Amino acid sequence: MAASTTTMRRIKLGSQGLEVTAQGLGCMGMSAFYGPPKSDPDMIALIHHAVGSGVTFLDTSDVYGPHTNEILLGKALKGGVRQKVELATKFGMNFADGKREIRGDPAYVRAACEASLKRLDIDCIDPLLPTSHRHSRPHRSHYLDIVVLSCEYAQIGELKKLVEEGKIKYIGLSEASASTIRRAHAVHPITAVQLEWSLWSRDVEAEIIPTCRELGIGIVAYSPLGRGFFSVGSKLVENLSKDDFRQYLPRFQPENLAHNTKLFDQVNEIAQRKGCTPSQLALAWVHHQGDDVCPIPGTTKIENFNQNIGALSVKLTPEEMVELESIASVDNVKGFFSVGSKLVENISMDDFRQYLPRFRPENLAHNTKLFDRVNEIAQRKGCTTSQLALAWVHHQGDDNTGALSVKLTPEEMAELESIASADNVKGGRYDGSMSTWENSDTPPLS
């Protein structure tokens, strides 16, 4: 295992003056989503150990708990610790009457920021990150030294005011599309974009990473260990508690896990050659993406934290980078399947799709019948339902790309269209709290 005595170097995150440690600490799992909340004394000790070890970039969100993770950070930052750290938080999800909604209006942005400041027990946050809608996923905003934006572009203008008032230092985005990043950056300079980037989550490399670099925006990589998979492989899934949302992730389901475990085994072989752990190797791969990237692996154990910072001493050759990337290429990771109503059964509590009208009980039974009919055609064609649905899209014109292995006759096209006609699907695509293509390109309001 690589030693964890590496002196923590610092990097410039973005071009607005923020400097952070080359590796941060994601705090979500201390309070939410990864099993029961951990004890405050243990987590405060971990945070203090991290700061004492030189890791001073801490990431939280008002949705973690909700709110309890920020309160935990507030306790940990007392006694002069706040002055030693760069703190980022997120906002964009509001809880009202037991329901979760996406909010980004100016009044909410200001209220969320001030509430985070109070919970964190500080006067100013470094980055505040609102969320957006990349790949139809809700995005959360972050507060701290950086505040991250949410889905409504009007909030950028309000965040700009909060910067001018000295309540936040920098603005960031979480899970934003390239076009959203450009529009937001035109209103106020964006310091950082937070996104999932790891050996097996690399879809951001096509457009989002180049956009950030073109605009001089720093990159904060969350889940750099593949939700913990690159630490212990399939053993992770065996030990997940019943309230750990990862048990519902497609990549950890039985039909995908055996295949993905083979990828882990190959990564582990390289790690053994390098004299490091597989988690250190996976983290080292992220670090080698550039000095504008700060991974924020999370943990609840000091020994795992020490192992993670040891990744900074792992040096990879260009040949080793290529070898790793070929193992976990985009088309070699299994975990994205269309399964009809089983999708809804396995949606985790923080998956926004549970709120979509088409997946609600009053509509799901009807729509499942549509899926069953599509599945019948897929079986006739010798393909999966997802392949059939994609083939229908490909057949709309030659300007669509992809491997067209499924050929549809005009009669089959008509049959598919009659099954899922506009008046035969129950429930809209989104509820009122979500933006759609009709307003997604609206410029941000200053």
UniProtKB/TrEMBL annotation:
The keyword Isomerase does not apply. It comes from Eucalyptus globulus. This is NADP-dependent oxidoreductase domain-containing protein. Residues 27-327 form the NADP-dependent oxidoreductase domain. Keywords: NADP, Oxidoreductase. Residues 418-446 are annotated as: Disordered. One of its GO terms (molecular function) is oxidoreductase activity. The keyword Oxidoreductase applies. Residues 433-446 have a biased composition (Polar residues). Coiled coil: none annotated.
